[in-house]
Amino acid sequence: MKQQFHYATVSEAIEELKKQGFALDLNLKENNIIAEEQVYLADEFEIVDLYRYEGASDPADEATVYALASVSGLKGILVSGYGISTDEAATETLKQLHYKYLEAKQR
User: Fold this and answer.
1) Can you spell out the DSSP letters for 14-52?
2) 14 neighbors 23 (Cβ within 8 angstroms)
3) What is the pLDDT tens value at each position of the chain, 107 positions in all?
């Protein structure tokens, strides 16, 4: 799947993804995705699209917005900053989601 849009800001990306049905606010902890106090295995999700933002002068402004969907039909948004996560398991899980996303794009 090719990325079809590029949004100027993180907030614009979130707003537009919500209009496309990505309504849940997702968080990543270890190898789990948390949505509305429910815990799901990250393996149940795939990256539908992603948008990367880099701060012009401040590395703390760097972020990636992920549009994620589960096999059961849940759709949500995960926003991750660069280099701020101290949770190595969550970082590894995000790498695995990226790997699946890149594999799907090559098909």
Assistant:
1) HHHHHHTT--EEEEEETTEEEETTEEEEGGGEEEEEEEE
2) no
3) 444 567 888 999 999 999 999 999 999 988 899 999 999 999 999 999 989 887 665 555 678 899 999 999 999 999 987 655 546 777 888 888 888 888 877 77
What 3-state DSSP class applies to 67? strand
Largest CA distance in the chain: 40
Q: Which two tokens stand for residue 19?
A: 């209009």
Burial class of residue 46, CB neighbours in 10 A (0-12, 13-18, 19+) = middle
Q: Work out whether the CA dihedral 106, 31, 74, 44 comes out positive or negative.
A: positive
Contact 53, 61 (CB under 8 A): yes
In angstroms, rounded to a whole number, what is the distance separating the alpha carbons of residues 63 and 38? Answer: 24
Which amino acid is located at 30 in the chain? E
- Answer whether 45's CB lies under 8 Å from 97's CB: yes
Closest CA to 6 of 52, 67, 63: 52
